[in-house]
Design a protein that fits this description.
This protein has a single domain, classed as Ferritin (Up-down Bundle), CATH 1.20.1260. 66% of the residues lie in helices and 0% in strands. It is built from ten helices and no strands. α2 crosses α4 and α4 (103-129) runs antiparallel to α7 (186-217). 41% of the residues are buried.
Length: 265
């Protein structure tokens, strides 16, 4: 069976538990799967598969939640779980949608999907201890919206999803850990630590393939990134930045210098 077609099947599943299990099976069976890198695969209707809840609303419609109440902690963890569920979907989409890449590209994104599924499972289990499940709170769809915008351009996908939207998680996670620590939620801090460590690798994969594609196409990575960000209205990076994590994720010296300049008062 072809890995790319199996990834599309997993992406089409609506139930998060079933989707996570399908991803884990794919990873376990990866050595027995062929990768038809040249196949053009027809898109399934209604992608991505997702449950009827959570209700998706504009980001401005989401209420502010305090981590210092049980309900507030649950809402914040739910927001992270929603990001991780969408991250499973974007990794699977990167596998099936884009043809003619090296086999390592597809294996990289399968590993990302597997780790995102693990993150989602950790968060869902912790949410259950707070009396909630995935779907209990409203959420927004910003991550998948950028996946849609870049579905016809792999260079843009690598530039604006892992290197931009997911990289924001590297910056946001340590302050969030600090909030949960002050609220006494040690398990949430531990889970976020697992996520941060893995996400450095995921952003590094985006950096790797973005630069590989730019080299193949004769594009300057910095200049082309600026064009793509403007073309697709990508959100601007906002300080404070986790420069150490971004360095480990493969951002260049020039990129880090630009961020450091933005961070200066």
């Amino acid at each position: 069976m072809d890995l790319r077609r199996r990834a599309l099947e997993a992406l089409s599943l609506a139930d998060p538990v079933a989707k996570s299990a399908a991803v884990r099976r794919l990873f376990d069976e990866r050595r027995a799967l062929v990768i038809d890198t040249g196949a053009t695969i027809d898109e399934s209707p209604a992608l991505p598969g997702r449950p009827a809840r959570p209700c998706l609303v504009a980001p401005a419609e989401l209420p502010k939640r305090s981590p210092y109440t049980r309900e507030g902690r649950a809402a914040l963890l739910h927001a992270v779980a929603h990001i991780e569920f969408n991250a499973i979907n974007l990794a699977l989409d990167a596998i099936w949608r884009f043809a003619d890449m090296p086999a390592d590209y597809y294996q990289d994104w399968l590993r990302v999907a597997t780790e995102e599924a693990h993150h989602f499972s950790l968060l869902a289990a912790h949410l259950a201890t707070l009396g909630h499940g995935y779907g209990d709170f409203d959420a927004h769809d910003g991550l998948w919206a950028m996946v849609e915008k870049t579905k016809h351009d792999l260079v843009a996908r690598m530039a604006l999803v892992p290197r931009t939207l997911e990289a924001r998680g590297l910056d946001a996670t340590p302050p969030m850990q600090a909030k949960f620590a002050r609220a006494g939620d040690v398990r949430a801090v531990e889970i976020l630590g697992v996520i941060l460590a893995d996400e450095i690798g995921h952003v590094a994969i985006g950096n790797r393939w973005y630069r590989w594609l730019c080299e193949r196409k004769g594009l300057d990575p910095l200049a082309h990134y600026a064009r793509l960000a403007a073309r697709h209205d990508a959100p601007r990076a906002k300080p404070p930045f986790n420069l150490a994590a971004r360095r480990r994720a493969g951002f260049s010296t020039e990129e880090l210098a630009m961020l450091r300049h933005c961070q200066e008062p």
